[in-house]
Write a structure and sequence with these properties.
Layout lengths: L1 H21 L28 H4 L15 E5 L3 E6 L5 E10 L7 E4 L10 E7 L2 E4 L5 E5 L3 E8 L2 E9 L13 E10 L7 E6 L16 E6 L2 E6 L21 E3 L8 E7 L3 E6 L3 H5 E10 L11 E11 L7 E5 L2 E5 L2 H6 L23 H17 L7 H33 L1 H10 L4 H15 L8 H17 L29 E2 L2 E2 L2 H16 L7 H17 L5 H28 L13 H5 L14
Antiparallel strand pairs: 1-2, 2-3, 3-4, 5-6, 5-11, 7-8, 8-9, 9-10, 10-19, 10-20, 11-18, 12-13, 12-15, 14-17, 15-16, 16-20, 17-18, 21-22
Amino acid sequence: MDKKNTTIGVLLLLSAVALMFWNAKNAPVQAVASDPVTISAPAVPAVQVAPEAAKPEETPAVPVTREEKTWTLSNGVIALEISSKDGAVKTVKMLRQPTSLEDESPVIFNRDMPVPALQLATAAVSNGVPVALGVDFEPVSQTASEIVLTGTKNGLEYTRIYKLSQNPDGRGAADPYLIGHDLKIRRVSGSPTAFPLLISTGALPATEGDRANLFLNASWYADGDYEKCKIDIFKDSNGFLGFGAHRAANSFRQPLNPKDDPLSYVATTNQYFASVLAFNGPARKAVSQVWAFPQRVPEDQRIHDVDLIAQAYAQVDVGALPLNASMNLSMPYFVGPKEYTRLADLESEIEGISEVVQFTNLFGFISIDWLCKILVWAMNALHDLLPAWSVWSWGWAIVIMTFIVKGITWPLTMAQQRSAKKMQLVAEPMKAIREKYKDNPQKMQQETMKLYREKGINPLAGCLPIFIQIPIFFAMYCAFQTCAELRLQGFLWISDLSMPDTIPGLENFEIFGISLHLLPILMGVTMLVNMLLMPMTSAQPSQKNMFYAMAVFFPLIVYTMPSALTLYWTLQNILTGIQTLIVRKQRLAAAPAGTTASGDVKNPKVDIIPPKRKGRGKNIPR
């Protein structure tokens, strides 16, 4: 079993090192291709392309005859700033989401971005982004929670309706971050023509915690599959040893079959927030493709030198509408935090929306979404049970969840420690077996298993706890990276559970350019203490060395990860150490005469090696 444990340890170390490199920061963004492209109109028999799609220069992005007007809708949770230009959403203020611990002003979605959200655009592309349709909208009616806008362009009348829920604590259809959005297109003059219309999703900048830009992308959901386009496609890459090398693209189109793969939504996301444009009823059939375009980030919003992002567009195929005929498109629009339970409640309204949380795959290809969802759901459930006035409620939820996990694994850990103690007591017989049958591995294995049976040793007992704990640890690693619930939530000296911890007063303290994070250090110390407390035989030097190496490598790997993860693992180590001391105390109280203070047998040979039996030849340990 020593070799098996050592093999498991080696695999864990290799996995941890691979995880460290996989989580490393990507290369800086390179130049973006700027060659203009043109989006093809949908293939509709006997239909001409609309003039606005064929000659984009005749429909400038910014009308020069009218000044821009704006209107605001608010429900106390979000505030929309709606523009008269194309009836688009310029910004969305998330009134309950502070920008940072130092800046309590609200997060502003699409702030200072050159392209508004829900912009109506033509099929042509200029300077890397689609050209605005150029419709001037005016209000038909407006209340505190709803506005109706209308405008006309090239014989088509466009009507846009925005509506907000007035329930600040609502879920599902009443969620305050869900914006009711309808678009109606009616032919009021001119001849019937068909053309593609693009609708943008808006943009989100990079975040401090996502140094590898894992969550900064355009994405879509169709036929049960969540797909995404990362910003890597818009930058030059030399690949790995030449493999995967590519030039920067200036657009990305995902070909979809509108009959077989109807789109549920398109989205843009970053680590903690998402904008999701969904399609219900006829809108799902009308939307045929997803486009993504690179968009420059204003200098004051650039993080980690990320100067561009991917903005998603949905292509709506507008049919050849006869006079007075219309298309009515229902397209709910979510702009808010990627809180898993909130998005799960929205599944009945927007199919697959919870996938925008983007629980990362282990090493990029091993999916443990199901376990991530269970852990995040459990954490939210525990948090909801705590009183509203409780301080550090999210931190306490993690602490309680740690105790629950430890309670589940407690019997397994007890079995592991008893097995380790028994293995320590049979060290001498094991050594004798190995020496005697060193040239006969099969016989050595048989005698070893025989000894295990006689002494009541389960060789797998030492592995069971780690088989439980390691998947949970990796699931928390994947989940806590994008857990919006933990953003800016403090606990004890930890100012933000979604970021590495810093000690008050030493936030700017560095050693060789490395910030000081206390929890990973405590994690390593508690791992080392547990190694020293764990019963270990002298015949297990390789296993000892592996455990000591893990006590060094694991803290280094999680050093810059969310403090929620290191808090969980450190507390687990403390509970395991307490359990080890309890087992040792129980063993000492029940120890017979002739044992040491730690409960070890002074002369294991006397108790373990049976006496010789007459007529049976040499004494062989059993």
